[in-house]
Amino acid sequence: MTVRWPDLASLELLLLVAEQGSLGKAAKLHGITQASASRRLDTLERELGVPLLHRSTTGSRLSPQGQVVVDWARATLAAANDLLTGVRALCGRTDARVRVAASMTVAEYLMPGWLVTLRRVLPDVEVGLRVVNSGEVCRMATDGEIDAGFIESPVVPRELTSWPVAEDRLVVVVAPGHAWARRGKPLRGESLDGEPPRGEPLSRADLAATPLVVREPGSGTRYALDRLLTGPDVAPPILELSSNAAVKVAVETGVAPAVLSHLAVAAELRDGRLIEVPVAGLDLRRPLFAVWRARTRLTGPAAELVRLARTAAHGAPRP
């Protein structure tokens, strides 16, 4: 079935109707005529298949269905605004007032919210964002190519100053049909002869001996995994891929388990496309760091971005 996505401008217009209590006022704020606004909302109603407005000689008001759609649309438009803010940063000039680089996990799941908040605080600041792996972020910070960077690596080069801004954790994930999947689904009182009970953690030895789908060398996730699993008993990777999305697809199709950031797999865990497997004897937590050149005081918009990132996580003070 072909999905027709609702027009974002029409959703924004519907929100204005809800806020202003008038189609005419909403149309004026939207910069269109009332007749054009009415046609847009008629089209939106047909696309969604629910009545959004009660129209009468005294005006238009939201229907009960329309009110629900408005509540859902707020989140949709907020996400779209995050997307546009992030894209503007990716398209930012190299001479932008603040030059930032972020590892892929940070850029995908945390940076959009940080940039939206920075724009509210400093609306005139131009941000130039580079998305690379953690190793490249550190190199760029060391060479002075960026004002601040954000990484997942648990170890920071001595040439850089670091400041923890958030905490993440790695998770072992498998496809629902994988033999380890039952370990991620505890059932009280269940016992099957010859098989581990549901919810029983995986051992560190079993994880180490299993070929995994992994991120590429230089990735913060890969670096953290290599520090956790060391020694002659560690099996070589079955596949190396350069993005979280590619690793998740490989796991979902049954290639092998993987170890990824919880940020990267939260949606797949919620809807059951991936299963988290508990592991005994390994601390899978890891800090996420802001980094910049050593012996350099972080000031201006870069310092504000780091402060906002840290505050978003736990209300910590300025570095």
From TrEMBL:
Alphabetized, the UniProt keywords read: DNA-binding, Transcription, Transcription regulation
According to the record, the residues making up region (Disordered) are 185-204
PROSITE patterns according to UniProt: HTH_LYSR
Q: What is the top-level taxon of the source organism? A: Bacteria
Domain (HTH lysR-type) spans: 6-63
Q: Which Gene3D superfamilies match?
A: Periplasmic binding protein-like II, Winged helix-like DNA-binding domain superfamily/Winged helix DNA-binding domain
Compositional bias annotation for Basic and acidic residues? 187-203
- List the InterPro entries: LysR_HTH_N, LysR_subst-bd, WH-like_DNA-bd_sf, WH_DNA-bd_sf
Q: Does the keyword DNA-binding apply?
A: yes
Q: Name one Pfam family in it.
A: HTH_1
Keyword Signal among record annotations: no
Family classification: Belongs to the LysR transcriptional regulatory family.
Q: What is the protein's given name?
A: Transcriptional regulator
- Give the organism, scientific name: Microbispora siamensis
Source taxonomy: Bacteria, Bacillati, Actinomycetota, Actinomycetes, Streptosporangiales
